[in-house]
Amino acid sequence: MKVKTKNRRKKPAKIEPEYGQKITISVIGGSVISDDVDGLAHKIGKIVAKVGGILVCGGLKGSMEAASRGAKEAGGITIGILPGRDKRDANPYIDIALPTTIGFARNVIVAASAHIIIALPGSHGTSSEISYGLVYKRPIIDCGNWNREGMIKVKSIKDLENKLRELIKDIKNEGSQAPAPVPQKAD
To answer: Counting Cβ atoms within 10 Å, is residue 23 exposed (0-12), middle (13-18) or buried (19+)?
Structure first.
């Protein structure tokens, strides 16, 4: 016996990109940081949660832990892309620990999984994440004086929050972020 049912499934509204997925914001920066950078990362984590973003980071110490702590204090969700294979390596503020076993190569995942990237002061690992973000055409907000072409410079925490809201609005209005283009040849 066939039961007739109305198809009540509607086309998803343009509320979130990628068919209802949340906005992911990668916060990148050094694992050994000053107290000033710790405070900045903590504030940035709070802002990421405040604007409704899911914070993605490398999952370890330093700016990753400070940003995660801020996000958790503000009621946000955090994801740590870990270099090793043990979830216990994640800092205590990570909700979802994703071990990769690929070391620094995880930087590709941190950059590629983001709708938006926020760059704090760091070293070679952070620099590589910035480079991947630029390759994948992600908006990258410079909070670490990187001064690299293609990055968005902000002057204050309030300026950062306003820029995040603007970028999120643009992403939501697009309905989806197109996949990153595959580079055709190496430079």
So the answer is: buried
Find, among 26, 31, 33, 68, the residue nearest to 164 by Cα. 26
* Cα–Cα distance, 164 to 120 (Å, whole number): 15
Q: What CATH number should be reported for the domain holding residue 155?
A: 3.40.50.450
- 89 falls within a domain: yes
Q: Is residue 16 a part of any domain in this protein?
A: no
Q: Is residue 19 part of a domain?
A: no
Q: Is residue 182 part of a domain?
A: no
| Sheet containing 24-28: order of strands | 96-99, 78-82, 54-57, 24-28, 116-119, 140-142, 152-153
Res 12: pLDDT: 32
Mean pLDDT, rounded, for 12-22:
54
The structural domain count of the chain equals 1
Q: Give the pLDDT score at 173.
A: 86
User: Is residue 177 scored above 50 in pLDDT?
Assistant: no
Show the domain range for 44: 25-114+124-172
Whole-model pTM?
A: 0.85
Neighbours of 105 (CB within 10 A): 11
Q: Is the pLDDT of residue 99 over 60?
A: yes
Which residue has better confidence, 54 or 172?
A: 54
